[in-house]
Structures are given as C-alpha cells and as structure tokens.
Amino acid sequence: MKNKKWIGSLTHRMRKRLLLVLCAALMSITGAWAQIKVEGEYRLTADNCNEWTLGGTIQWQTDEDGSFGFGGTPSSEVTHYSPMFNLSGLTTPWIEVTLYNCKMYALDSEGKTVKSYGEFRETFVYNEVLDKSVVRLRIETHKGYTHSLRNLKISERPVINTFPYTLEKEADGWILHAGHWCESDTLVKNAYGNLSLESPLIKVSGNEGILDLEIADRYSSSYVSINGGDKDGTNVFFSTLSITKDRKHYYVTFPKEVANLNISNISGNPLIYSLTLNSAETLIEWHEADGIYTVQGGEYATGQTGYFQLPDIERATKVTMSFDVEATSWDNMELYLTDNGTTYQAITPQNGRVELELSFSASRFIPGFRVVSTGGQMGTVTIRNYRVNRLEAGSEMQFDLSYWYDFENSGQMGFSYYLNGHEYNHGFFRIEHGLPVKYKDFPDPAGNMKPYSINNDEAVDFISDNGNNCNVYVYDEDGTEKMEQIPLKFGDFSEDFLVCDYNSDGRADILIPGVNKVAVQKADGSFLLKDYTTYTQEEYNNRDKNNDEWVKTYPSSGIVSSTFGDAFLSGSDMFIGSGYYMGALGGEGTTSIDFNRDGLPDIIDSNSGNVLLNVGEDRFVTLPMGGAVFFRDLNSDQIQDYIVYDSSTKTVTACILASDGTMTSQELISNLSMDKQIWCYDLDKDGDVDILLPFSYQESNMASFLVVFENDGTGHFKMHEAAFDKMIDFKACADIDGDGYYEVLATYSKDDKTSEYHDILLLEADGKYTYSLNLQPIMRLEKRLYNSRGLDIEIGIADIDGDGYYDLLTEFGVSYGNGKYSFTTAQVYNLKESTVATRANSAPTQMGKPTFFYEAENGLLKVSWAEGKDDESSAVDLTYALRIGSEPGKGDICYAHATPDGRRLNLIDGNMGHGLERLFDVSGWPAGKYYIAVQAIDPMHHGSAWSEEAVFEKSNLSSDFILSSGHTTADTLTVALSSPRDASLTYDWDFDGARVISESTDGITLGIMYDTPGKKRITLKVTDAGGNVSTSDRQIFISGTKLVEKETDGFSIIGFIDMDCDGLTELLTSNGVYENDGEGGFKKLAKIYNTQLEFTKAFVADVNKDGLPDVIEEGSNSMLHYINEGEKTLRLETHDGHSVNWKWSGKNLIDFNNDGYVDDGKFLNTGNDLDFTFIEHGLVSYDINIPFFYADVDRDGFYDIVQAYYPEDTRAIIYAGGNGDGTFTKRTVPVTAEGFNTTGEFHIQSLTDMDNDGYLDIVMKMNESNIAILLNNRNEAFDRMVVLTLPTGMSAGTIYPCLDIDNNGRMDIIFTYRKEYNNYSKVMCLFDNWDYEITKIPDNFNNTVYSYADMDGDGRPDIIGDSRSYLKGCGSVINTRPESPKNIRFAQDEQYAVLKWDAAKDTETPASQMRYNVSVKRQGASGEGAFVISPMNDMKADAAIIPQYRYPMATTYPIPLSVLPTGTYEVQIQAIDAWGETSEFSEVFLMNVEAMPQIGVPTDVHAGATAAVRYTGNGPLSALTWDWDGGRLDSQDGETYYIVWDTEGRKQVSVSYEGSTATAEVLVKPAIDASFSINSEAFTGAETLITMPDCEADLTWTASKDGGAFRPVAQLGISINYSGGADAHALFSQAGSYVLMLTAESGNVVSTAKRSIEVTDALSMLNMGCVAVDAQTGKYCISWTYTGTLPSLATHINIYKEGTSYGDFRLAATVPVSQMSWIDADSDPQAHASRYCLSVAGADGTESLRTAPHKTVHVMLNRGAGSSWNVVWNSYEGLDVTTYRILRGTDADNLTVIAEVAGSLTSYTDKTAPAGVCCYALDFDTTGKNEAKSHSTRSASEVRTNIVSSESATDIILADDITVLNMGENTAVAKGGILLSAEIYPLNATYRRVDWTIVEGTDFARVDQNGVVYPLSDKVEGPVTVRATTIDGSGLYNEIVIPAEELVITAVDEAADGWQDGMNVYQRGKTLFVGNIHNGSLLVLYNAGGQVVHAEKATETSAQIQCETFPAGIYILKAVSDSWQETRKIVVK
Question: Which of 1784, 1822, 1849, 1910 is most buried (most C-beta within 10 Å)?
C-alpha cells in the first residue's frame, strides 16, 4: 500500500520517466525486445502494424487515398510505441511521416530523445534525415484530442547523382518547407507569400553544378535566394535571382561542394514551373541580365579572375560613372574598374553606391569590371544601376517618337537627330547604357532624316528636307541605296511635305500642300510630281452643279457610302475655331484617312492645320481645323471625331461628326491656358475615349490642375478636376505600372526654386477621374543647376528596348566645377528601376483573320477586322497595323513596320490608326494572290502576333496608269504604269496624237508631248497570252502654254526694242539697256553709252527713217532722241524744249494718221518727233482719268478711240472714229443684246474680236461672278451677249487685253480676281461654243498686264507687267509662220494713197486676228530718210516686233499724200500672227504717186460686178480714148464710167487725150459665188458639214422646211456655226425636208445658192437591246434593232463604252448597220459591269445623238448567316426590269430557277442552299419583253449575267442597323428629285448600298437605286414612305416619310426681261412654253432617267414644245446658247 501510495504521489512527468527507466531495465534484463533491421526501407502497413503498441482505444485506419496509420480521440493521455529498429544497414537513414495533433520522439537505446517531431493542434509532414542512433519511436497525445499518424516510412536518403535531373511533383527526397505542390503546369507555388524548397543529396560529377530554374512572379517581381549546403550541412553557396512576372529560365552555377540546395523567396510571390539539375565545370564568370552584372560566389584558386567589358565612352568635358555594388562576402577577392583591360581604380570592398569622376588617357575610355580571387571561398558580387553621364555641351534627346526606329533590327530603338547649328550632333543614335551614342552620320546633303517605308520592304527608308528639296532615300534589303530629290522650293517659298497614301494603292506618296503638288510613287519606286486643286468649303458648296462647273461623280459602289459627300460639307462651320494654328499637339503625325467615309482618302495636314477632304479627280476641299487638333472616335460610331484647341480663344472643343454630315460640339474649356497637349484615353476603362487636359503651374493660377472629361459614351463629357498646390509641370501620360489606368508623370516647374534635384513625380490614377500626387519621387536624376534651380527639364516616355517597361527619355541641365560650368545632357532611364511597383506590359491578344471584299468594277478592296483585345488597355486605345504582301508573311504591298513575330519597329501608332477597316484602290495591283494580316498595337506600341492571313486573289489584269497632270500645258507629260511591267503581257498605248519623247528602261514610265492643245484621251490596253484584256483611259486637257514668272534683275521695264533686229528683244529699263541672253534672262548691255543711261518715259520710233528702231525719251526740259546706229549702239541727240509738257504712257504707240510718225494715245505727233498736239476727240474728258481703248473699229485703216466708261443707263458704245488727218468723228453703236440691263455705270475692259468675224467685241465685268462679252454685229449693234460664269470663289476684277495664249484661234481672257484679300491673276482659255478652262498664273504675279512680247525668242508670247518681272510662256504647242500678204494694190484720190492687200493666211491665227507691218520706202533709197512708213526692223523678217506699237489689223492702209511726194515707192507688207510670229515680207509692190492723177479707180472689184472709174483730168469727155483691158462699159454717169470685167486679174486702165496717156491699175478678184455643198441627208441633233464658198462677201442663211416659205434658219430650229474659213456646221433640231439657201452680197453683187437636205431622227429609230453575257465567249454582247428603215446616210453604228471616269464614253467599235450585235472582246463580266451606248453614223462622219446608256448586271456572292448565300447585283440601267430570276446549280452548265424577285431589288438570300459548291446567275425580264420563263434547267447560253461560284465567295461583315436621311434636292446627284441617303451600321459593314422601294405613295412618286425620289406629277396628294433594305442578307430595313409638300414642283412664273431673271417654263394643255431664253438656244429635254426625249433650236427668245407624247413625270430642260446655258426641273402633267 505504501508503494502504491508513493507512485500515486508522483507527478505525471515523473511517472513517465520512471516507466522509461523500467522499460530500459527490462530490455537490458531480457536482452532487448525483438528489433527490425532496416536495410532497404521500412513502411508501416496493415501487415506489420501488430508490432506496434497503441495506448487506450486507438484504432488502425486506412484513409480513402490509401494512407495507413492510426488515429482516434482518447479519453485520457495515451502513449504509443513503435517496434525496435536497427538502422545500421542504412548509410543515411531517412524518415517520412505525417503527424496530426501529436508529438513524436525518436529515442536512442537509452530511451533518450534524439529529436522530437510535431506539435499539438497542427499537421506536420516530415521528410528528413533520421539519426542512426534512433532505435524506437514514441508518440504522445492529449486527452480528448483527435490525433493521427500516417505514411510512416524509414529508408535510405534519396541522392541525385544522375544528370540531367528533372524535378517532379512530390519527388522523393525533396522537402517543401513552405509552399505547395501544384497539379497544373506550375510545379510549386508559394504559401502565404513564402516559398522554401530543399533538395535531396546532390553529387555533382564535375567541378560545378548548374541549376536551371524556370520561375516567374505571380504579380510583378520578386527576389529568390538559392542556398547550398555541403555534406555537413554548412552553407557553402548563396545566390539571389531577380524574378519578373515573365516566365523565364534562370541558370545558377554552384560549386561541387554543394550537397543540397535550398530555394526560397526573399520577397514577392514566386511560382516554380520547372527545375533541372546538371553538372558543369567553369571558372569565374560574369553574368549580365537587365543591366545587373553578377559574379557567383564560390571556391576559387588564388589568382583566378573574371572580366566583363562595358561599352566604350567617348571623351567629354566631364564624365561621371555610378553603380551599386553588393557582395555576400568580400572575403578572398578584389574588385577593380578597368580601362581597356588595365586597372583603373580599385573598388572599395563594401556594399553600397560607387560614384566616380573619370579621367581619360586617350580619346575614349573602355571600361570594364574585373574580379580577382585571393584564394578560398569568394562571395557573390552583384553590380546594379550602372550609369554613365557624359557632360558634353549639346547632348540632346529626340522627343519626337516618329524619329525613333529599330534601325539595326536588334530589338532596341534608336533615333535620328538634326538641329540647325548643331551639325556635330546630326546622325543616327543608339542607346548604350542610357546614353544616346551616335553611330552613323547622315548622308550628304540630308537634313533631318525621318524613317519611313517607301518601297515596302524590310529595309528602313528615309525622307529628308534640306529646305530646297525633299530627299527620298530608299534602301533595298541588300543595302543598296538610291536617292531621289523632289523639289520643295517653288518660287521663293520652301514648303513642308507630308507623307501619305494619296491614291490608296498602299505605296507612300509625298504631298506638298503649300503649292498643291503631290509626288505620287510609281511602280518602280520613283516619284511622279503632279498637281491637285483645292477648294474652300464655300467654293465647293456653291459651285454650279447643274451647268458648266465641275460636279462630283461618285463610283457606283456597294461598299462605299457615296451619296452624302455633299451633305457632309453642307454645314457652314464644319470645322470650328479661327485662331492661329500652333501645330499638332502630342506629336500626332500626318495620315491619310477616309474622314467622311466616301471611299476617297482624305489627308490630315498637321503642318498647316487643315483637313484636305478628297472630292475626287485630284480635287480637295480645304477644311481649316481651327487650331491644334486630335482625331478620335468619341462616340463609338467609327467616324473620326476630333478635339480642337483654339489658342486665340484658349478654348478646347469636342466635335462629334454624325454620318449625315452634321456636327455637334461641346465646349470643354474656354479662356484657360492649358498645356500644349491633350491626352485621349479610356481613363475609366468603360470602353469609350475620355479626355485629360493638363494645366501645368502658372504663377497666375498658383496651382497645377488635371482636368478629366468623362465621356458618357455618346460624346458628351462631364468635367472632373484635381488641383495641386505644388509647382509642377505635367510631362507625360501613360499606364506606367501596367494596371490599365493612365498615370501622369510630372517634374518640378521652372518656377520652383526649392527642389534641389531633377525629380520625376508620379500622379497615380484611381480610375475614378482623380489623381493623387506622391511627393516622394519615383526617380531622382541629377542635381539641378546650382546657379539656376529653375532650369526646365524635358522628359518623354517610351519602351525603347522592348522589355515591357517604359523608359524615361530626359534632357536636363547639370553643373560641375562647383557650379561654374553647366551643360545639357540627355539620358534614358528604365522606369523598372523606379520606386513604382511596375510589371511588364504584355502585347495585345492575337487578332482574328481580317475579312475583305473586292469590288472589281471600281477596283476597290475593302479590308475589315474586328476590335482587338489587350490585358492592360481598353480596346478603344488600340491602334492597328495592316500588312499586305505578294507572298505569305511579306508586306511589299502595304508595309506595317513590324517583324514576322509582331515586334514593332517604331514607336508610333499602326498604319491604320484606330480604324477597323481600310479601302484600297487595287486597280494598279497586278493579277495574283495577296496575303493580308492585321495586328493590334497598344499604347506602349507593343504589337500583337500577326493574325492568320486572309488570301485575296485578283484575277483581272491591271491596265491602270498615273499621269503627271490631268490638266496641263503642252509640255512634257509623264505617264507611268501603276504596276510593274510584266514581260508576259502586251501593252498597247493610244496617246491621241502625242509624241513619245522618252521611255524608262523598265518600260514603266514614258514622257509624251502634244503639239496641239485641247481635250485628249490616253488609253492603255493590256492583254495576256490567253486573250484576256483590261483597258483603262484618262481624259486630259492640254493648254497651249504655261506661265512662269521671271525676274528682271530688279529693274523696271520701260520699253522693248530689237536694236539689231536679230529676233531677240532688248529691254529699255530704269537702268539702261539690257540685252537678251537667249535663255529668257537679261544682262546689262556692255556699251559705254549705257553706263549711266536711265529711261523713264521712252518709246520706240524710227526717228531718222532709216528702217531701224530708235528711242525717244522725254527729258525734264528737252526731247532726247537715241538714234540706232547698228550693233546695239545708240547715239544721243538732245533737242531743247518742245511744244507741250506732255505725260505719255509709252504703252499706246499708234500712228493715228498713217503719216509714219508715232503718236501717243493722247497726243498727235506733228511730224518731227518733237512737237505734239493734244487730240480733240469729243469723248469724255481726260481730266476724270478714264481710260480709252484704241482700235480700228470700222476697219478703215485708221485707229479710232473708244470710250471705256459709260454713265448710268447708257445702252450704246461711243467711239471717236479717226478721219485720217488727226481729227475724229463721234459715232455710236447701240447695245441691243438681250439681258444687257444697265442699272448703273459700266466699263469696257477689253476690246477684241472674240468671235473672229472681223468686228471688235466688248469684254467687260458684268458683276463679280460673271464676265460678259458683247458681240458686234457688223458695227450695226452689239446684239448678242455671252456670259461666262467664274468658278465659285473668284470675283472678277480687272480684265486685261486679250491674247490667244493657247494658240487655238480663240482669244483668251486674262483677268484678276480677289481671294482672301489678295489679288491673283488667271487666264480664261476659250474654245468653241464658249467653253473655257481656267489656267493658273503664278500667285505672286499680280502686276498690271499691259503688253505681250516674246522676251526670249522662243516663239511664244510672254506677258509683260508694269513691275520688275514678266511671265514666260512655256510649252510645246507648235506655231507656224504666217504666209506673206498677197495681191497688194493701191488707189490714189485727192487725199490718200490707199493700200490694200489680201488677208494673210495662217494655220493657227484667224484672218481677223492678223496684224501687219507696213513698209513704204522711196524707190532705190537707203539710209536716213529712205522710209516714209518704217517697218522698224531693217526689213529683216525675223526681227522681233515692238510690243507697245499698235500694228494695223485692217487690210486697208490709207497714207496721206502730204507725206508722199510724187514718185515711185517700194511697198512691202509683213504679216504678224497672234503670237507675234512674223512672215517674210511680201514681194515689192511699186506704188506710183502722181501729182495730178487722171484716173480714179477702186483698188479692187469682183469679176462680173461693176467698177466705178472716174475721170479727173481736164479733157472733154468726148475726146477721150479709153482702154478697159478687157472690160466692158456697162453705163456712164458724167465723168464716172461703170465697167464690168468678166475675168480676174490685174487690169490696166488707160485714157488718152491729145497724145498724153494716163494709166491706173484695178485688181479684179474672182466673181462672187455663193455655191456651197452639204450632204443631202442629215440626222437631227448632229452637226453636218458645209463646205463654204471662197468669196469675200456678206453671207446670209435662210431655209424652207417641208415646202414652206424661206425664213431665217433660226426660226426653223437650225443652227449654223461659221467663223470663217472653208467649213461651217449645221445642226437641225427637227426632222423634215429642208432647202438651205445662202445669199452672198458684196456691194451691188448678189449671189444665191440652194441645197436640199433630208433630216431624219435616226436616234428614235435605233433600239438598244439588253446587254447580256455571250455564252461562247464569256464577254458582253450588245445588240440592237431598228424601227423602220434607216436613211441611206446611215452606214454604220458606233458603240461607245464608258471609260475610267463616270460619264466619259469612248468609241469602242464601229460596225455596219447590217450588223445587229457586237461582242466586246475587251470586257470582263466576271470582274465588273460595263456601260454602253450607241449612235447612228454616216460615212462622212455625221453622227446622231447617242442612246441612253445601258449598264449590265454584275452578280456577286458572299457568305450569309449559317449556311446561306447572299446573291448581290447592281440593277440594270437603260431598261426597266420587271423580274429578276435567281438561278442556282452545282455547276455553270446546269442552272435552275430557284426564285423570282421584283425588278426593284438587287439582292437575294438563298437560305436553302445545298451542301457543296453552288453556282448562281440571273436572268431577267425587261419592259416589253415579259415572255414567261419556265423554271427548267438552264444552260449557260440562257443566262444574261456572269456566273458566280460559292468557291470564290467572301466573308462579310453584316449590317446590324440602318438609318435613312433626307439630303434634299440641292445636290448634283438628285437632278430634279429628292436625294435620300442610307447609313449602314456598323460603319465597317461590308455592303453599304441598299435597295430602295416605295411602300406607300407609289401613285405619287418613284425612287431609283441612287435613292433619288421623283414626283410623278405636280399634284402629290399624300406623303410618300420610302424603304431602304440592306443587300447583305441581314434583312434589315428602315423607312422615311417624305411630306407631300416637299415633292411638289412649282412651275416658275414668267419673268420680266433680263438675263438675271432666268428661264421660265410652264405648261398649257399639251404645250410646254419656254420663255426668257437666248435667241438661238438649243433646248434639250431629258426624262428622269437621263434620256434625251426632245431637242430643238429656239428661233426667238421663247419656244414651244409639244408634249402630248411624253409620259407624265419629272423632266430636266436644258437651254444652251453660245453665251449662256441654264437648267430647269419641270413637271409634265
């Protein structure tokens, strides 16, 4: 009992101890319990568990996963024992066990605890070494606690000794101290931020081991340590890895002593993906990664070394180096900085920052790090943040990211740099350790080299502007360079250039906006310089669309919205703001985008601040941006909106453009000075674009502000602002930390004087429109300048090394030498090294394959793609790059600046911007396959992987070509193929008469030249070996000359003279005489007399009558005569005093009285070139400074004076007719022209024969918009008026003397106009029917034009101004020399010797425009006094004319007898044409002047006509003997005898009296004969040739119709056009039997002739059939029939085909009338539709009007929803289609009708298409051909259209919405109706065309497929509902209701007389009455479809049209006369 009591009194611990002692004693007594010897492994199982002793009621258990052990919940404390173990058989025992809520003790043989395991309330897993002394395990637990033991195993420790070894999950021997094994591709992840992994034993076979660790941080970055222990457990190795979020392999070398490794994290959240161990043998090795240089620690021998060389450093004024060094142990090693391998400085062995100032022993420092082992264990050395600062004056950074490029394809961006005055810094730079290092100079003579891709290959190209030229440097991939210069210097101004895709062909073009020129890249990579035209918005909107002025024609396209182009520009303020343009903010570059989505590329010109809106045919509307502008889609409708900052008003406005052309705007801020930058991003990640405006610190604000404008998704913005009370400047905005929100970087403002350092501050974004400023800088740079803390710093950001982190680009000032010196330095820092917790940016997700649609008819390829995705950035912040190549993976068609794996090569947005589609004009692409891919680009300019390529196959050939100009002078015109020349193709050019003057070696480019002006057509036909043909053509206009301004060396031109008569003009100037250098230039004449010579009022005359031109100059009190002595020598004669102190102009040199002495316009020369008298003409006084005109109005040989000014209500022209003796008689010619209403004064501005009828017409400004020409009817009245309307925007000013500048026989008008407060000059070149073209005069030439002269002797007239320059005429138009005048004769009366001659003939100049140079010389005389009338050219035919001298234009020249003493004179006459070209002098005619002539005869008479011969002698009449030289006496009246000669020739008349005989000569000309010829048949509306008689007479036409009386031709609707010469043309407006009669009358002689002609309306007899596809040839077949029998005149049919331009038809074929069809072998029905029309023609060239065009149906196919197919076609034009039948089959030869649809539809969706290939085509019925068609199987011969197959169908983007808009009737497209426009959404939907139908109101209106609604009558009784339906198979439609009142057409009331009031049209019964038109107007009536239904000539100012046969509806009536035209929309009831 005592013992029991004693035991019970023991504590629990004492009792356990006692029990163990007893057990040990028992073991020793019994010799030990049975032991289990472990030799392989011992594992606790159900088979051996009975060897264990379990306490209490604990049970053995097997878990579901197979784990075995024991467990339970004891009611008291229990202890469990294992059996006894013997571990002597194991080298290194290893235990593995899992314990829960219990403790396990490993006991030795004495029962002592060797090691304990586990804790209560925890689970522990053990894998570790077990001490060999352990013999038993004891497990203890607490009362009432559940506990367990599982998976106990004792074995040999695992050893890794086979390499390579790869770790697998839960591999034996690996101990995961912290972390978890993973099931996914991640092997091990951290737990609660901790990771610790220990390896088994490692036995490296070599000297060292290598750890390959694939690892990444879960979020951003982490540090991982690697510790190595030796076999004794001592740590012998340590390494640290810097881990990023990118999954990478890290290689760590460890020494062979390492027996196990432990991998654990120091920071971050690492994930281990794989682990591999291998063995290696190495010495000391440096490692570099991300700018960190590391030497791994280890055991090294004494003297063992490792070296790492750094980039060279060039010498500078001061160079500093800094880095951070850290060593795990500095024992046993030394660290040095070396220079070129030599020790430069030892590095102190301590961790920390090292800062050094370097000194140089050579021109460069070659730095390196060297580590040296002193023997033994060396720690790991890590060097970070290596930085070199070169302090050198002028070190600068390129902040324009468009100059950065991966030039070396290394993954590292470099930049090009240029700054005037810093030539040493010009060149290419790369970044080396943060430094910009120049590695290559620019080529000479480059300016700033900007990288581009010009030739679309992998090599980067450059464009450089050196001020004068744009140098284009193109490099091939093999490095070959070629350079081309494009001139930028035009005139005195250097222009900016813009790189864009001008013509949407994928190639880079260069625009020069300042001079409206563009260099278009040709197929060979060179450039073609051509012109383009610009309009203001007002000019474009107000152009006359119905009449002459240009009308925009849209392509008939299904993929382009083409009908609202005018509406887009209809707003008055489409672009707002009027402030001074400051340049684009934020570095936005120039780009070409389809701004208004009309299929034409528009150009954003950020240099000038304009949008150039393309309106076709090289025309642009200039839209001012109104300030600095940013383009983004602000309301997600895929239309470019914009944000504009107007600096003048300090206003920021958001402008939202709608698809209907309207714009809404929201003023964001006003009168606030923001920074010159706007940031547009999705700041809140809600899918739309927000706006961030920075307001950096200003003293007036005392704060800095960030203002966010939150977008609600519709483009409406709400403002949020954040204010900061620090002096900071906002520098950049970007997603710095990769969280998807945009932070702002800032620096201290220059106003801040407290901050010591250049600190980079971060304003963090919270995504809720607020920003917080962290004053702790994220990066501290250098100290600010000591003496000026306020020096600014410039920074920018970009990822230049592609590591996914932004780099900081900096340029700032630093100081050295205690602040005595300062420099600017440029540095690049990686923000990864900042304090911001950044993570690497990932590239956007790979894009899906793009879709495309090809519209072969227009050559348009539309490429679309879906919106991209990115992990960090919103989709609206992505841009896109498109790559198109001729081979997979290439970008040779459209280059995208990215590598094949998507890596970007530049730092700008993608070539497609933010858009989701692009339209290409592929007309110039060769046939073949094209591979299209797209990539997304995020704001960091990382590109996604390229999408899968879509393959576009172009089957049709390319015949496209480009021209240097479509409207040019007759100069060299360059023509170039758009695609490379293919040797397998045949190229046939038709240049329409041009000469080929050059051709490039590759055959791509040709130079051609025209010798004649006018409209031309260039055609190219390309044919392949299979006979396939492609044809393209262009219409061009050739002007006769172009004008180029030439300077005159700074002197004023006073006059012109050809002193040596060599044909080269000398100038009389304010600085003496200048001679011509023969090249258009002038130099001062090197003569002694010329040294001090000055002219002020000089004019040219032959003073001494020797035939040479002399000079007369008015001195201050004298008259100076400069006598021409030959060899360009002038001799001065001074004559003191003269009769009047006159003020001559020197510009109007006229011989008023033909006495051989030159008069001035106001003063008459008395005959000595000294004394002048004032001319009394009786007109308006000179005193009021009114100009006069001088001309021979009545062509009597004397110049007259015409009054220029007329007071109010004057309706007559007043002139002073010259009487020949210096006196004048006042005469008037009334103005009776219709429409000439004078309500105020008017001025004549030019007096010229404008219609070549021999009578002077008047040119005047009618008003600012119109120039009027009053036509002279034989001096009886100005009874006709032509009104020429100027293009909108031109307001007519001064009109100068007219000149035939293009040498086409019609005088042209030179005038000034004002535009934007400046004066400019233009030439209006006139053609037949008063058509005209405007030719530009250089803008800076705004001088008064007063004369024309050939200044350089090239045969072309130059324009002379009143200043120091002239306009040189250039070109190649040929001007031939005129013939010499013939048949000179003279007659003498009491006062005059009257010379006459026949008008000279000239090829180009009409007879009425010829001038004459008259020479009258005393017979046999020479030298001074020889000439009475001097030619002033020494009788040299090639001498230059005198521009100021008014040469006679009449062929009559009376000379007063007062200057002709009795005697014989040699008369010669020279002709001068309109260009100043002179003929040879005529043969000498001897003129015998008598003192008392006996006979007075006319100079000439016609044969058969009576001539009055007068006897003036003293003899009695009865005693006279006459010899009439074959003539006969017809009658006698006293002294006058009337003689008739029946034969022509010179007749000598003589009279004898008392042995004395007097003679006189009469020229008998051919008899008057009115005979003419004309074909006996003609067509209505066609010009019919008349061969005119050769007679000098007044001609009058009359006609009789259908046996009626003869009436003036105009009254019968006949127009006869005749302006002299052999040919006239008649036009008959109505059919019938006519007799034409011509009456010729000359004096008392009248001759008549008649011809009969049958006029047929051949057009009405020609019926054009339906154009269909010919089955045999696969080409279009055109057929026709006739109504009745064609007249015999009709011999053939002309077939016309529309060319490249809409409405431009060219003659395609001519076939006999017996042929009823024609196959167009050049057509390609599979590619596109074609338009044709026909005419009837005769063998003599007579041709009827053309039929209305027919356009074929072209079928296309695309994939619909599901398995459906969408069949799409264009409607047939020319015939009304009632029904379309859709045919389908499995092949082209077996097609069956599957459906019928109405003729108004143009699409069908086949939803029941069978699987496999399906072919489709159409058949259709037209009006009048409605025969039934059975639904049977068809062969291809029965199909009218092309056949399409599903194999070639394309994928499309379907419409999801549609909007219909009413554009009104004020558009060119409407033509008498109301234009509707349908907008398809999304805007990148493939098909943008719709089907139009009227669903309500069909009785009131109809709608065509252009969306034009026409009323059917003038009574619309209800609204009309129009439906627009998509054609893509989506089935969407929308409707619009047009009120009745909008469709009512009101007839114009009859107006009062007057041109301004316009034409009136109204209907009474069955008659249309047309009033207030011009007499003789051609009236043409069109139906709504554009067909001509009636044409006639108006005989009066009104007309009547019978309309009983016309269907009711809308018609267009056009009235055209020679001078006027007008158009009216009317309703026929």
Answer: 1910
Burial category of 1516 from C-beta neighbours within 10 Å (exposed 0-12, middle 13-18, buried 19 and up): exposed
Query: What is residue 840's DSSP assignment?
Result: P
Taking the C-alpha atoms of residue 1553 and residue 155, their distance in angstroms, rounded to an integer, is 170
| The residue to which tokens 């379907």 are assigned | 1854
pLDDT at 1729: 86
Q: How many helices (H) and strands (E) does the chain have?
A: 6, 168
Would you state the structure tokens that stand for residue 1799, as one six-digit string?
């003729």
Q: In the numeric block, which tokens belong to residue 1458?
A: 């007062």
Q: Tell me if 730 sits within 8 A of 747, measured CB to CB.
A: no
Quick one: which H or E segment has residue 592?
Answer: strand 591-593
Separation of alpha carbons 1288 and 1293, rounded Å:
14
Which pLDDT does position 1285 carry in this prediction?
A: 78
pLDDT greater than 90 at residue 1468: yes
Q: Answer whether 1933's CB lies under 8 Å from 1876's CB.
A: no
Burial 543-572 (b: 16+ CB within 10 A, else e): bbbbeeebbbebbbbbbbbbbbbbbbbbee
Please check whether residue 160 is in contact with residue 168, taking contact to mean a CB–CB distance below 8 angstroms.
no
Selection from 944, 870, 878 nearest residue 913 by Cα: 878
User: How many CB atoms lie under 10 A from the CB of residue 735?
Assistant: 21
Q: Which of 414-418, 949-953, 1141-1145, 1751-1755 has the lowest mean pLDDT?
A: 1141-1145
Candidates 1069, 962, 952, 1055; CA nearest to 1006 is 962
Q: What is the pTM of this model?
A: 0.68
Task: Give the integer Cα–Cα distance in Å for 14 and 652.
Answer: 90
Q: Is 2006 helix (H, G, I), strand (E, B) or coil?
A: coil
* Beta carbons of 877 and 740 less than 8 angstroms apart: no
Q: How far apart are CA 1308 and CA 1043, in angstroms?
A: 14
Does residue 1397 register a pLDDT over 90? yes
CA dist 1478 to 1099, 1351, 1353, 1467, 1780, Å?
21, 15, 12, 17, 69
Please tell me the number of Cα atoms within 13 Å of 586 on its side-chain side.
22
Q: Are strands 35-37 and 84-86 parallel, antiparallel or unpaired?
A: parallel
Q: Taking Cα atoms as reference points, which of 818, 816, 830, 829 lies closest to residue 391?
A: 816
Nearest to 912 by CA among 941, 869, 881: 881
CA distances from 1061 to 1124, 1432, 1440 (A): 11, 9, 7
* Extended strands (E) in 245-351: 248-255, 260-267, 270-280, 286-289, 292-295, 298-300, 305-309, 313-314, 318-327, 333-339, 342-346
> Which residues, in sequence order, are bridge partners of residue 417?
427
Beta-bridge mates of residue 252: 211
Q: Give mean pLDDT, residues 554-578.
A: 46
Q: Tell me, what's the pLDDT at 1294?
A: 82
Of 1287, 1299, 1293, which is closest to residue 1369 (Cα–Cα)? 1299
* pLDDT at position 971: 72
In angstroms, the CA 35 to CA 88 distance is 12
Q: Which residues contact 1642 (CB under 8 A, 6 or more apart)?
A: 1502, 1505, 1568, 1591, 1592, 1593, 1594
Nearest to 956 by CA among 1848, 1791, 1759, 1752: 1848
Q: What does the DSSP assignment read for 1595-1615?
A: EEEEEEETT---EEGGGGTEE
Work out the pLDDT band at 745, boundaries 50, 70, 90.
Answer: very high
| Phi, psi for 1013 (deg, rounded to 5) | -85, 175
Token match 């404390």: residue? Answer: 77
Are 655 and 665 spatial neighbours (Cβ–Cβ below 8 Å)?
A: yes
Whole-angstrom distance, CA of residue 11 vs CA of residue 401: 84
Per-residue pLDDT at 882: 95
If phi > 0 it is left, if psi is from -120 to 50 it is alpha, else beta; for residue 1972 that is left
Q: Judging by beta carbons within 10 Å of its beta carbon (0-12, 13-18, 19+), is residue 1127 exposed, middle or buried?
A: exposed
